[in-house]
Specification:
alpha/beta; two-stranded antiparallel ribbon; 46% helix; 183 residues; 7 strands
C-alpha cells in the first residue's frame, strides 16, 4: 500500500487544473505531475499537431514514463484526460468544471485556434470529461468541483485537503496505528 494517495485532476483545458495542482502540491507536499510537461520532456508523443497546436500523445510511452513515480504514491496528476490511467494508480479523480462563458474567455486569452476553442467548449457543455471519469473509475472516487472563481478554487483546495487527511486516517502505513490488533 502507498503511504500517500494519487490524485488525478482533470477537466477541459482552461478549468484551472494546473492552478489547483500547484496549490495542492504546495499545501500538501504531494508532487504535481504535469502530463503536458512529461510528454514534452520525455518525448511521449508522435509529433506536433499544427491545427490544434499541441503534441500528439503516445499513451503507451506516457504510461511507461509515469509508472514508477505513480507506483510510489503522492502524485497529483494534471491532465485533460483520465481514462488512460489504470484504476490501481488512482485514489481520487477531481473533475473541474467551469461555466462556458468563463471557459471561452480563458481559452480566448490563451489564443486557442477557433476549432480547438470550440471543441473544448463543446466538450464542457456535453460533460465529456466528467462522463469519462465516471465510466473509468468507481463512482465513490470521482468528484465534480466548479472552478469559476478564486473563492471556488480555495474551497476546492480545502475540500481536497480534507479528503487527503481522511485518506491518511483510513490508510495508515504498515506498522502504524491501524487500530486494535485483537480485532
Amino acid at each position: 500500500m502507498r503511504a500517500d494517495p494519487n490524485l488525478v485532476v482533470t477537466g477541459t483545458p482552461g478549468v484551472g487544473k494546473t492552478t489547483h495542482c500547484e496549490m495542492l502540491a504546495e499545501r500538501t507536499g504531494l508532487r504535481h505531475v504535469s502530463v503536458n510537461q512529461i510528454v514534452k520532456d520525455k518525448g511521449c508523443h508522435e509529433g506536433w499537431d499544427e491545427e490544434y497546436q499541441s503534441w500528439i500523445v503516445d499513451e503507451d510511452k506516457l504510461l511507461d514514463a509515469l509508472e514508477d513515480e505513480v507506483a510510489n504514491g503522492g502524485c497529483i496528476i494534471d491532465w485533460h484526460a483520465c481514462d488512460l490511467f489504470p484504476e490501481r494508480w488512482v485514489d481520487l479523480v477531481v473533475v473541474l468544471r467551469v461555466a462556458t462563458n468563463t471557459l471561452y474567455d480563458r481559452l480566448k486569452s490563451r489564443k486557442y485556434p477557433e476549432k480547438k476553442l470550440q471543441e473544448n467548449i463543446d466538450s464542457e457543455i456535453m460533460e465529456v470529461l466528467l462522463q469519462e471519469a465516471k465510466d473509468s473509475y468507481d463512482k465513490n472516487i470521482v468528484v465534480e468541483l466548479t472552478s469559476n472563481t478564486t473563492e471556488e478554487m480555495d474551497s476546492n483546495i480545502d475540500r481536497i485537503e480534507a479528503w487527503l487527511t481522511q485518506w491518511k486516517k483510513d490508510n495508515p502505513p504498515h506498522g502504524g496505528d491501524g487500530g486494535d490488533a485483537d480485532d
